[in-house]
Amino acid sequence: MRICGIKLTHDGGIAVVEDGRLVFCIEQEKLDNNPRYQHIERLETVVAVLAENGLAPRDIDRFVIDGWDGEIQSEFQVLSKGSPITLNGAPYVERDAENPLTAYQGSGLMLDNGVFSYESYPHVLGHVASAYCTSSFAKAEEPAFCLVWDGCIFPRLYYVEPSGVRFVGCLFPMIGHAYAAAGQHFGPYRQELRTGWNLGIAGKLMAYIALGVVHEHIMNVFQELYDYHFAGDTDLAFGYRNNSHSEDALLTAVHDFFDASASRLIAETPEDILASFHAFVERLLVRGMTSTLRGYSVPETRNLCIAGGCGLNIKWNSALRASGLFDAVWVPPFPNDSGSAIGAACCALAGDNGFVHLDWSVYSGPNVSHGKVPPGWQSSACSLKELASVLADNKPVVFLAGRAELGPRALGGRSILAAATSPEMKDHLNKIKVREHFRPVAPICLEDRAPDMFDPGTPDPYMLFDHRTRSEWKDKIPAVVHLDGTARLQTVSRTSEHPIAELLMEYEKLTGISLLCNTSANLNGRGFFPDAAAACEWGCVDHVWCDGLLLTKTGASQFEG
User: Fold this and answer.
1) H or E segment and range at residue 25
2) In a 3-state reduction of DSSP, which class is residue 178?
3) End-to-end CA separation in angstroms for the chain
4) Could you report the per-residue pLDDT of 181-231, keeping only the tens digit for each?
5) What number is the average pLDDT over the span 307-325?
6) Which NCBIfam families does the record match to this protein (predicted)?
7) How far apart are CA 408 and CA 10, in angstroms?
8) CA 423, 517, 179: angle at the middle one, nearest 5?
9) What is the dihedral of CA 160, 178, 91, 7, to 10 degrees?
10) Where are the alpha helices (DSSP H) in 11-97?
């Protein structure tokens, strides 16, 4: 059985699952230097992705489209050979809490001169399926809770077991976009015009709050206004909760909340306000989870999956893991909508066979190529041992290897790597990436050495939890230590077959250091570089390594740090 999952809206993607194995998932932002959050606007895109991977639409047994906005059903406006067509699908949230996994049956999917029927499942259930089916819990056939918190919904808790899924309840009445909206009112991203949602602010705020201090009196203001605007027995709060399906009403309510907050916090610095709001929401999350679980009968083993855009918040993930509420916590590398095409396909599997484990690899994105390298670059074969010497000489390298990683974070497939021993390296990388000075650069570290350098330093292969740099290492690896002493750690097993593992081991032999700086290889506001030529055209790093070939800019100069 070959299933094609399709995410048409932002973070558009196409995934193929065959007999329970993920064959590939191609996110649109990772093709042709496309913008972040790219939609699929033309159905020819689906045909092209299938063809690139040796398939035609007729080779697919079932097409599944991820659901989207709408209480009863969603509607998609797309082009097929230049002509507009309308496709309908499942809504954002399931309509039947007792039977969430209900498919919408559609027709009229026009692909390569053929017309195909398709299924569609609620968007939120795609998050549940992508998180649970890729977890070790599914592999062991153990049940798990699944927290889904997206931009325009309250945090929703589900209970998943191989035989099915049921909705447990909402933890508290705050939409995920409230975090990004805070940045429109306070700090460096403040703006007077507050229309729509900005998908890029939340991650930047998570870095910015390291400049601030959490104050209880600020959190008390947020608590009071949260009760009045969202959670309490006021007419305003009742209206907000009753209009939770209206994006415009939610947007207005959230901005009114922050306008009221600003009038009460005039004397406070924006960094302290945002740090305190982050901590306030974290407290809501843990308390809401504790309260919801208290009234729910569960087996002795408690597992948790986290999905939705808020699953990219490493500090909230870490708070839930440290809460003692769960035995194990799993966050896939694509908790946001970059995993929705996979989730759509997994919903179809679950509809037939229950929630079964998916055989998958994080390196299932587009294949890398050299492309047409521009003039001014010379190339030579380069082993990983030789590349380690380049890095040990304090020279940043664009590292492109095999298939791209899934999700929004560079995990060694489309990375810029550099030595972490120079305190100036972080500033240099931020400068060439056109990023603010407070943005962190992540460490990529051999898994068995991570506990020596970080607390807790537990395995974290997808950069989704917070770790604190141990004091004795802060001066040794300053480029990857964030302003608050933490690090967004990625660990790599020595037994991994990916080239990044061998490179880290070769670098360790040369330097005694088991980690490197790691940041994404991309143009500002764009997805990962699709090939070596794109990295060379960017030209801000003098060395590009691509599957065994080192491209060096003619007249390259060593970074001085």
Assistant:
1) strand 21-27
2) helix
3) 55
4) 999 999 999 988 777 778 889 999 999 999 999 999 999 999 999 999 999
5) 97
6) nodul_NodU
7) 13
8) 95
9) -80
10) 44-52
